[in-house]
């Protein structure tokens, strides 16, 4: 009787964890598929030219010849979704990478040294986070002009203060730990304490946040596209595909909905992988 109860308890405990493991691997698999498609797009023969008009009937629904259907000009929507993802990810990747390096550096310095350095960095971070993000990005793109480089600059500036806040919280956390105190009492100088004790423990947090930040940047670019200030034509992003298809939802819903589904699945996968890394690496999110 006791054995049966124990087995039932173990099964009930293990089941949610097993489901999360399955969801994690599905998320990783989806991200791998998306990344492979967007990176290898120029060499995959089954992906059509996204700019070539009239490769099919205008606004044709999904079929074997056009998996995601065609748009108003007869362009293949599968090809446009792949190439749109290529540009969206090429905006998000550098933005998050620079945000991790710059924001992480500032946050770690602020949390580790404290005093006037913390005051100066925290003041800048708080002012930046107080600004409405979309309005700030809109201002940057409007002033600099609509291009891939300027949109990337705009979303990069948005990522730096948020990541710096998280890095600061993690640096504060580990700088107060016993192993850092013991190392300091043994005569270790600040470079060793910073680069051998604190930074290696902050890096896992930054790796986890990178996935979450990627999703936020993709959404930010999509928001700019919806108000018409993201990268201009003929460049393609997921955001401007959705913006172009929103006026045809009644007549041809596939133009926006299928690409929107791909974008949604990618965002969900990024958030799930980032969330799982936060839990498995025992990282506490800072409130931003």
Q: How would you summarize this macromolecular structure in one to three sentences?
A:
The protein is built from nine helices and no strands.
Description:
By secondary structure, this protein is an all-alpha fold. α1 crosses α2 (about 75-115) and α8 runs antiparallel to α9. The relative contact order is 0.13. The radius of gyration is 23 Å and the shape is elongated. About 75% of the residues lie in helices and about 0% in strands. It has one domain: MetI-like (MetI-like fold), CATH 1.10.3720.10. Mean pLDDT is about 80; it is low at about 1-5, about 10-15 and about 285-288. It is built from 9 helices and no strands.
Q: Mind telling me which CATH architecture this is? A: Orthogonal Bundle
Mind telling me the C-alpha Rg? 23 Å
CATH third-level topology: MetI-like fold
Distance between the termini: 50 Å
Given the helix and strand composition, which structural class is it? mainly alpha
With helices defined by DSSP (H or I, 4 residues minimum), what is the helix count? Answer: 9
Largest sheet: none
Number of strands: 0
CATH class: Mainly Alpha
CATH superfamily: MetI-like
| Percentage of residues in DSSP E strands | under 5%
Keywords:
single chain, 288 residues, mainly alpha, MetI-like fold, 9 helices, 0% strand, disordered N terminus, disordered C terminus
Walk me through the topology.
Layout: H1 2-40, H2 77-113, H3 115-130, H4 133-144, H5 148-175, H6 178-185, H7 190-226, H8 238-245, H9 254-280
Helix pairs in contact: 1-2, 1-9, 2-3, 2-5, 2-7, 2-8, 2-9, 3-5, 4-5, 5-7, 6-7, 7-8, 7-9, 8-9
């Amino acid at each position: 009787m006791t054995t049966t109860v124990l087995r039932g308890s173990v099964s009930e405990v293990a089941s949610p964890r097993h489901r999360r493991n399955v969801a994690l691997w599905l998320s990783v698999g989806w991200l791998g598929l998306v990344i492979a498609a967007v990176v290898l797009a120029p060499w995959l023969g089954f992906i059509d030219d996204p700019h070539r008009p009239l490769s099919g009937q205008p606004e044709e629904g999904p079929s074997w010849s056009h998996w995601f259907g065609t748009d108003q000009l007869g362009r293949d929507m599968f090809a446009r979704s792949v190439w749109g993802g290529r540009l969206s990810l090429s905006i998000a990747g550098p933005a998050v990478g620079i945000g991790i390096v710059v924001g992480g550096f500032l946050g770690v310095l602020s949390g580790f040294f404290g005093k006037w350095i913390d005051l100066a960095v925290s003041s800048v971070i708080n002012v930046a986070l107080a600004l409405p993000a979309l309005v700030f990005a809109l201002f940057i793109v409007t002033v600099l002009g609509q291009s891939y480089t300027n949109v990337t600059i705009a979303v990069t500036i948005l990522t730096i203060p948020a990541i710096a806040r998280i890095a600061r919280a993690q640096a504060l956390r580990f700088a107060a730990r016993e192993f850092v105190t013991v190392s300091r009492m043994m005569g270790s100088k600040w470079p060793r304490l910073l680069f051998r004790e604190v930074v290696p423990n902050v890096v896992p947090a930054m790796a986890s946040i990178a996935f979450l930040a990627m999703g936020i940047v993709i959404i930010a670019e999509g928001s700019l596209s919806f108000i018409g200030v993201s990268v201009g034509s003929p460049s393609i992003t997921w955001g401007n595909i959705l913006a172009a298809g929103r006026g045809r939802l009644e007549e041809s819903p596939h133009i926006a909905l299928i690409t929107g589904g791909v974008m949604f699945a990618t965002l969900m996968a990024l958030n799930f992988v980032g969330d799982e890394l936060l839990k498995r690496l025992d990282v506490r999110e800072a409130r931003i």
